[in-house]
Amino acid sequence: MVPEPYYTALSAILFTIGVVGVLVRRNPLVIFMSIELMLNAANLALVAFGHRAGTADAQVLVFFVMTVAAAEVAVGLAIIVAIFRLRRRLSVDELSIMRW
Question: Rounded to whole angstroms, how far apart are CA atoms 42 and 61?
Answer without folding.
Answer: 11
